[in-house]
Amino acid sequence: MTWDVQLRKGVWLPQIGWWLDAQTRTPRSFVSHAHSDHIARHEEVLCSPATARLLHARLPGRRKETVLPFGKPHELLPGVTAVLHPAGHILGSSQIHLTAEHGTLLYTGDFKLRPSLAAEPCASPRADVLIMETTFGLPRYVFPPEAEVITGIIDFCRQAIADGATPVLLCYSLGKSQEVLRALAPAGLPVMLHEQTLFLTRIHEQLGVNFPPYREFDAKEVGGHIVICPPQPGRSGLLSRIPSPRTAVITGWAIDPGAIYRYQCHAAFPLSDHADFNDLVRFVELVQPRRVLTLHGFAREFARTLRERGWDALALGQGNQLEFSLPS
Ligand SMILES: [Zn+2]
After folding, report:
1. Which domains does the chain have, with CATH numbers?
2. Does this model's pTM top 0.70?
3. Cα dist. 28→5, 13, 18 in Å?
4. Which residues place a Cβ less than 5 A from the ion ligand 1?
5. pLDDT digits (tens, 9 = 90+) for 277-307
6. Separation of 133 CA from ligand 1 center, angstroms?
């Protein structure tokens, strides 16, 4: 028997009639996490409790929901069992592990192998077929130790305040901002949050995550504070209300030469919520799959890397690899 895996508007598993992270409305889809490129107004979803809470915050409305705690087996269909495992990407982010007559299949969604300050530790269950994200699938994307990066961010903030400027950390509002806020705790500097960041941080608190003190952004009192806000185009939005902003973007893409020009900011720090190249390889070694299907980012290049290392690997949905099956 074989698993049929197809890429259309998300990953489609025709044998069981479920989508994985479909990007437009479908009858039923697993939702790995609540980032906007992984969610849509599906009729039925399967997700973790924290993802369900964040999904409601981002896409209010009624839908059929199966909310599954990590590690609890669930009979998706007769003969098909699903188990969710943490993916370490953002709070509630999960991988889905399926067992059926076709064998076992693991789909990672976005994942990060290194411990995160704002997400559950990533698991690596074994599976016959592994569908994995490969955002940073080139050897040049190897991130420095996180403690080093965090020290750099804190030094940047202290220096900006000492110079009479306002340090502004540009972070995606869900996940990265909460990780950075927690990372800033040892610095003991006062922090202001953009309203969207504040909204999502409060939901994290309701879900049991603790943070150092913070307050909502207030332009009149911003002096001496660190500001965390989503990336702003140019000097628009909140940035235009800060007299002397000194900006840093926090992203894995900071590894790229010229990142500060691309993001139009003063500094760039490579703190990512994705696995880097070495951890992508390590994850495959932990899962020990018979076949790897790569998705997102440098999918084709990373599949080639895996083949060179002896794995059966293909980029999902590229060229004649649009539809295929795993030989039994
Ligand atoms: Zn994501």
Report:
1. 4-140+274-325 (3.60.15.10), 146-269 (3.40.50.10710)
2. yes
3. 16, 11, 6
4. 35, 110
5. 999 999 999 999 999 999 999 999 999 999 9
6. 10
